[in-house]
Amino acid sequence: MFSDIGALELVTLVVLAVLIFGPEKLPKMIQDVSRVIRKIREFSDGAKADIRSELGPEFKDFEFEDLNPKNFIRKQLAENEDFKELNELRSSFDLKKEMNEVADAVHGRETAPATPTAVNGSAGTPDLLKKQDKPDAGERPPYDSDAT
């Protein structure tokens, strides 16, 4: 719940609490807040236990986190055999290779046969989306106004 609060936000909250409540009332206020949070947790755990006991043994693997739509859909997709085959089919396509072949065809270059190169894990085709480090032999370097 509070995992996305950084150190700066935490220090800011502490300083604000000291300014708003004062150093005399702050310990009492922290005790009151922690007591309320503890009561809410006890109430929530009791309600969960009551719901589980009312549902019966056929819902023994029921988790309240599954009521979140994202978790429910993710769990259903993971258990469905048809979607496993779809994921295997989707992973069999090499989109980077296809894009390089299309770019080569557009620029009028012939595609080289796929030979594995171990540097960046790509096949023998160059990565056209990556910035080139040095210009080609026939290409002039960009004009540098500081060099003159």
Structure overview:
By secondary structure, the protein is an all-alpha fold. The protein contains 4 helices and no strands. The longest helix has 49 residues, at 7-55. It starts with 6 loop residues before the first helix and ends in a 41-residue tail after the last helix. 1% of the residues are buried. Mean pLDDT is 76; it is low at 115-122.
How much helical structure, as a percent, in the residues?
A: 55-70%
Given as residue ranges, the uncertain stretches (5+ residues, pLDDT < 50) are 115-122
Number of helices: 4
Radius of gyration: 30 Å
Give me the secondary-structure topology.
Blueprint: H1 7-55, H2 69-79, H3 81-92, H4 95-107
Task: Give a quick rundown of the structure.
With 148 residues, this protein is an all-alpha fold. It has 4 helices and no strands.
